[in-house]
């Protein structure tokens, strides 16, 4: 089959690889209907050292079950399923607590002999725990929004949930990428009263307004902080959803959060330390979030996707076949595409 | 009257100062029955630049109302009262949310013309919101434990509450100072299942065991981390209560917290940044806590103090008069005293 590999910064190739086969009785084989490129794929695309050996890449996919191992129940050939971006048994103590990203028997796609999602098919370890069956056909118009359950939508939701967003909450979302926009959507869905979106790409912030943003702040740094404070009577917002992962974003986050408030981060941090000294202590600021246990949220979010009351799939503004994947990476790196959908 | 002033590192003096008088109709005058020296007083005692002008110091006291301003209701001459370590109106939006440390009309003792607590009397601003009436006499044997409601006990409680401690929680407490020991007491009171106290002063850790610690780890750094992990099957604890405020303590905290767990800090941070990068992100660690809104917790903790079911006053192992205050600072700095009670 064909699948995507990354060889180094700016060097993504689609190549022939061995067809996946069942290895463990807990495996399933899934033919990929839709995959996509994640903002976090751009970190290695931007900085990975070049190597002779490529690594499989991609961690978001939705597809059709082709075969299941002897220990997999509840799934059969022909089922349409979505996979969260970390595979997990969904039975260990961490999984039962809703932290499938720390599953004792789980792991990442594209690592340790496990396929990446940006290919024609995937061997899914711990398939019974990992995959969620979808009650749609292979040609459903909902596939893009359902695919977003793999990562971006639950990631935005995790950010909002851990930040304590609920009815009456005021929220700042930092970042107008696909995760930031899904964080807006999630905050709105959870009842936030005011949602200030910090972003400077108008096409994206316009979608953010559609998703529920009440205000958009294009300015960054001190000027951006001043704008958010101005919009909140000088206090900042109860919740700040940091959806970027860079140091200036977390600095902005702690500057615009209200005393007693919560900063949640779901952008993979490209920094080792956080400014969190006396001022944050004096103001009782909480810093939370982390890699989203998407699996924990899929059942909760699914009904609203199926009935169309949320449409997170609108973050996809470009669609490519497998051949188009390298160009898709470049388009996202150049910010000419927000998020690229792949139809293998 | 006489009161304590700090002139610089190691230079604490007890001097004659003007008697307090009512200045605002919201003030009360309180004659101090008991005050004490706080671990946080040791920061300026250790490093304050020398100056000609001394500053009033002390933020924990309990006393008798001598006079009240025209706008103060619910308090009268002769009432025994305790003051939280930050004064507040207890009516603004932050106060109503239980964050009296961010009161819009509040402030710190010993600053901006407000008396410190380590003296014979105190003018109490926003007295109606600040002071809590106690149903005991001036000679009650409970005064030390009631005085602890001013700071250390609610601070330990705030640490445990913000860290999410409840029935079944496993907890690590870092630091065997008075706040750390009160954090043990608070965690036990909230139902923690296992409480590991990290400290190396046996007299203190013995009291920690009395307060509810199930394990004591005397080792620090990597060795201490390894011990805690060994005691928790390699996972660390759900909650980590960081009651020190130094960089090595927060480093230990993030190293011994279980995935999905919470680190709360109530030791005033002597560092500007916290190690909080990819590993903490991957494990979904929350960092919380801050300066404790003691006022928010006094009514909740008071009954257990009054009926003797908790005895936080046991952290006082030394009692001095006002003349003994400079020696009390030195004893706490030398760690020959755990916490010094002052009877002016």
From TrEMBL, chains A, B:
<keyword id="KW-0862">Zinc</keyword>
<dbReference type="GO" id="GO:0046872">
    <property type="term" value="F:metal ion binding"/>
</dbReference>
<dbReference type="InterPro" id="IPR011032">
    <property type="entry name" value="GroES-like_sf"/>
</dbReference>
<feature type="domain" description="Alcohol dehydrogenase-like C-terminal">
    <location>
        <begin position="178"/>
        <end position="303"/>
    </location>
</feature>
<dbReference type="Pfam" id="PF00107">
    <property type="entry name" value="ADH_zinc_N"/>
</dbReference>
<dbReference type="InterPro" id="IPR013154">
    <property type="entry name" value="ADH-like_N"/>
</dbReference>
<dbReference type="Pfam" id="PF08240">
    <property type="entry name" value="ADH_N"/>
</dbReference>
<dbReference type="InterPro" id="IPR013149">
    <property type="entry name" value="ADH-like_C"/>
</dbReference>
<dbReference type="InterPro" id="IPR036291">
    <property type="entry name" value="NAD(P)-bd_dom_sf"/>
</dbReference>
<feature type="domain" description="Alcohol dehydrogenase-like N-terminal">
    <location>
        <begin position="25"/>
        <end position="132"/>
    </location>
</feature>
<keyword id="KW-0479">Metal-binding</keyword>
<protein>
    <submittedName>
        <fullName>IMP dehydrogenase</fullName>
    </submittedName>
</protein>
């Amino acid at each position: 089959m064909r699948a995507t590999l990354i060889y180094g910064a700016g060097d993504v190739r689609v190549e022939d690889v061995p067809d996946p086969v069942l290895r463990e009785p807990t495996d399933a084989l899934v033919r990929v209907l839709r995959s996509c490129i994640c903002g976090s794929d751009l970190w290695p695309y931007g900085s990975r050292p070049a190597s002779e050996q490529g690594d499989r890449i991609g961690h978001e996919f939705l597809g059709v079950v082709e075969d299941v191992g002897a220990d997999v129940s509840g799934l059969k050939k022909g089922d349409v399923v979505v996979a969260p971006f970390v595979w997990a048994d969904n039975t260990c103590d961490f999984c039962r607590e809703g932290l499938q990203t720390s599953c004792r028997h789980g792991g990442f796609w594209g690592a340790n002999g496990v396929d990446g999602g940006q290919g024609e098919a995937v061997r899914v370890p711990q398939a019974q725990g990992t995959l969620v069956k979808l009650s749609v056909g292979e040609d459903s118009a909902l596939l893009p929004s359902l695919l977003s359950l793999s990562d971006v939508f639950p990631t935005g939701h995790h950010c909002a949930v851990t930040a304590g967003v609920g009815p009456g909450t005021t929220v700042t979302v930092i970042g107008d990428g696909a995760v930031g926009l899904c964080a807006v959507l999630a905050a709105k869905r959870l009842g936030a009263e005011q949602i200030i979106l910090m972003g400077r790409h108008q096409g994206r912030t316009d979608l953010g307004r559609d998703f529920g943003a009440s205000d958009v702040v294009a300015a960054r740094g001190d000027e951006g902080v001043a704008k958010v404070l101005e919009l909140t009577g000088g206090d900042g917002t109860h919740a700040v959803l940091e959806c970027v992962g860079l140091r200036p974003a977390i600095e902005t986050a702690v500057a615009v959060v209200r005393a007693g408030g919560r900063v949640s981060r779901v952008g993979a941090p490209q920094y080792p330390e956080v400014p969190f000294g006396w001022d944050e202590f004096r103001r009782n600021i909480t810093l939370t979030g982390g890699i989203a246990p998407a699996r924990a949220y899929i059942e909760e979010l699914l009904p609203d996707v199926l009935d169309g009351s949320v449409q997170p799939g609108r973050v996809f503004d470009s669609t490519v076949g497998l051949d188009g994947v390298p160009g898709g990476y470049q388009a996202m790196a150049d910010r000419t595409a927000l998020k690229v959908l792949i139809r293998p």
